[in-house]
TrEMBL record:
It comes from Pseudobacteriovorax antillogorgiicola. Residues 54-170 form the Acyl-CoA dehydrogenase/oxidase N-terminal domain. Belongs to the acyl-CoA dehydrogenase family. Keywords: FAD, Flavoprotein, Oxidoreductase. Residues 284-355, 394-453 form the Acyl-CoA dehydrogenase/oxidase C-terminal domain. Transmembrane segments: none annotated. Its cofactor is FAD. The keyword Flavoprotein applies. Residues 174-271 form the Acyl-CoA oxidase/dehydrogenase middle domain. GO terms for molecular function: flavin adenine dinucleotide binding; oxidoreductase activity, acting on the CH-CH group of donors. This is Acyl-CoA dehydrogenase.
Amino acid sequence: MKAKGNFFLDNDDMRYQILQEDKLHELYKLFSSDEKEALGVSTTEEFQSLWLEMIESVGEFAGTQLRDNAAQVEKEDLVLKDGKVEVPPTMQSNVKTFVELGAHALSVPIKHGGMDAPILMELAGSEMIARACPSTLLNVGWYSSIANIIALFGNEEIQSMFLPDMITGEVSGSMSLTEPDVGSDLASMRSYGEEQEDGTWKIYGSKQFISNGSGGLSLVLAQNKKGAKGLKSLSLFVVPQELDGKANYIVSKIEEKPGLHGSATCALQFDGSKGWLVGKNGLGFKYMSLLMNEARLAVGFQGLGLMEACYRLAKDYADQRVAWSKPISQHEMICEKLLDMEAEIKTFRSLLYRGSYYASIVHFMERRIEDKALGDERTKELEKEIKNYQRKLREWTPLLKWWSGERSFVIARTCLQIHGGYGFTKEYQPEWWVRESLIISIYEGTSEIQALMCIKDTIKDIIRNPRRFAESLVAARMKALAETDAIKKRYYRIKLTYLNSIVTLVMKLMKQNVKGTFNENKSSDIIGLLKKLRETLVTFDNISPALLNASRICEMKAIVALSKAAVEDGERDPSRRSFALRFVNRWYPTMLRNKAELEWDDEQVAAIAQSKDDIAQASEG
Ligand SMILES: Cc1cc2nc3c(=O)[nH]c(=O)nc-3n(C[C@H](O)[C@H](O)[C@H](O)COP(=O)(O)OP(=O)(O)OC[C@H]3O[C@@H](n4cnc5c(N)ncnc54)[C@H](O)[C@@H]3O)c2cc1C
């Protein structure tokens, strides 16, 4: 295949990250002999070729049909008719080709008709699709993700009812969480199900902003009885859009949006719709969290694809546009912007691919632990090894989603800026990419929600193991002083700034809640402080400083993780050292800014946040 017109072959960095660290080799080792036989592979090389060929064909599809159709997708409107969405012809043709490639069910287990592809490979496909046409990604992304939840948690009856049509591509799904009055705060959800004598359920309520809401079925998260509240009463239901040729739920509205023109964002109305419980009653939030975590990685890839498209667009334009007798790409400020974009994209890809590799490892390790197909001894080892991957994945997922959301927009805007006046016209693509970038920080949990998840886990981790935290602080101090390699030295400064910021934050929490004085420069005091924090945190009245600074900590933690990935890439491959050096130098000042901002006690915010009951009472009154 030719590199031109193929979004995989024209991108050496993608290939590098997929093959880095022997990722596919390690995954191959986790396949059982039955699975290898079903795939028709008996060596690592064959396994690798299988997925690389598959990804090449998705790359060709993205780099030709999707790219060529993107402008037409923008022109054709979705139509709401009789409670269903009519998808325009160009999008229909995009989805049809994707299904014909067999790419829609890649990660679905072989026993259900899929190919058991590592999620890493499926998500690499998402990057390329997003680079060409984000709307199409929103239409094709709902086959395997939904099918996998049904395969994992649904009983045989449900699996046989719903999976075959998803595997043939006749039906795709959607994920219904958001309601008109409830988005981030899922515990306040009002939709509910009522169990029927025959074991099925009737679902009542309205769902809002549901992507692909007219795909054929929806996984609906709802309370397990009318009036219930909280996360523990949420159950997951699979609800077909039609039953016996009649509507089972309807699409009552399609949103008009600045981006994702070809993706139907639907209001859904469930009025006694027949549904089937997936898994156990009351565990819906747990199941949905699994789907959401994967979806968050997918949104990471959506942002990455968009960044790649914007960088290439900006670079091509800047190389051709001449001002003062030379291309604008050679004028210092534009040159710097382009180099920064490239370094950031490569670094982000490095961590994102590693994160999704860990997600793949966890997935197959879980399966092997359950079926013991690799023998008792190996199973025991896996039980230990998996924890490390799970921990890292949990730590990185909100960081990656946050970065994707916050940075896609900045990169799209930089691309527009580099295009000057043409960037602000509809004739050129940058304004479209800016519009497409706006959603990434909103769905699958807003940036603020990612930051809250990050801060919660960060503080929990530290108070669970204060000694480890204090040791890493001391080590970072020493290394920041002693390291002679310029890139690593910068990295340790970045890490030290982050750890010092955590100490500052903990001091603030202590000041608000516990009596006593501490010296933040003495590690014994820090351990003492953290132990005290562990003893007292449950009774903390005021965690406002942590909530206020969650985004800052999240950004800093992301920079630490990304810098580490850049340093490691530079160590493995000296040709990548220039990106690593640029990344750590570019982002160090952001660390200092965040730390300085965090040091300020913003009393106005604290006062308003603590008076929330008064505001709520006033608005109720
Ligand atoms: C195009 C599109 C597609 C979507 N697809 C789907 C889908 O397929 N399925 C689905 O279920 N939903 C979907 N959504 C909904 C989306 O996930 C929600 O919009 C999102 O989770 C935010 O919820 P909300 O809009 O109710 O905002 P709110 O929760 O009301 O939040 C409003 C603002 O307040 C902030 N905020 C809220 N709580 C806090 C807090 N404690 N601290 C600090 N800040 C806070 C938020 O970050 C946000 O900035 C989609 C939305 C859009 C626009």
